[in-house]
């Protein structure tokens, strides 16, 4: 499944836990074949790891590079998305299909998407990533809302 109408190749950072290592590898290979720079932040093996460790690692890297986007994967996608959202500068959306991935970019300026390897097959994951990468932030009325995400009330 090629990336249709996608912007120029960009840096894509991936991280997972042990439950999603196969999905992560498949997405990394596909994205590289599409011409993107891919950085796999681990893990390298299917040995048990804790998803927060890799969620924080991914989020820290994305927050430090405003040209990069991230893909966070664990068994359900829930735990790693929570970890990513704990890091300032990251807006991570748990997605299950392409519309939610596109809306995460268009309405929320998400810079990370999360998916669950036990819930999302490779073809659907590719469709979600394609929609995420091809959709720009809509700005306009969404801008002030996104700003509020970065500045919660005291």
From TrEMBL:
Record-linked InterPro entries: RpiB, RpiB_LacA_LacB, RpiB_LacA_LacB_sf
Keyword hit for Isomerase: yes
Binding site for D-ribulose 5-phosphate: 17-18, 75-79, 108, 118, 141, 145
Biological processes per GO annotation: carbohydrate metabolic process
An example molecular function term from Gene Ontology annotations: ribose-5-phosphate isomerase activity
UniProt KW keywords: Isomerase
Protein family according to the UniProt entry: Belongs to the LacAB/RpiB family.
One protein family per Pfam: LacAB_rpiB
Residue positions of the active site: 74, 107
Its EC number(s): 5.3.1.6
UniProt protein name: Ribose 5-phosphate isomerase B
PANTHER family linked to this entry: DNA DAMAGE-REPAIR_TOLERATION PROTEIN DRT102, RIBOSE-5-PHOSPHATE ISOMERASE B
Domain of life of the native organism: Bacteria
């Amino acid at each position: 499944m090629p990336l249709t109408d996608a912007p120029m190749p960009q840096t894509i950072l991936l991280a997972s836990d042990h439950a999603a290592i196969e999905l992560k590898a498949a997405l990394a290979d596909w994205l590289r074949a599409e011409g993107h720079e891919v950085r796999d932040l681990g893990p390298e093996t299917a040995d048990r790891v804790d998803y927060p460790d890799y969620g924080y690692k991914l989020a820290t890297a994305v927050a430090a590079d405003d040209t990069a986007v991230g893909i966070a994967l664990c068994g359900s996608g829930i735990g790693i998305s929570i970890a990513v959202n704990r890091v300032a500068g990251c807006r991570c959306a748990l997605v299950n299909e392409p519309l939610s991935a596109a809306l995460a970019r268009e309405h929320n300026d998400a810079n990370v998407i999360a998916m669950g390897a036990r819930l999302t097959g490779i073809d659907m994951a590719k469709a979600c990533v394609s929609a995420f990468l091809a959709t720009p932030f809509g700005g306009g009325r969404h801008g002030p809302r996104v700003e509020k995400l970065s500045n919660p009330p005291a």
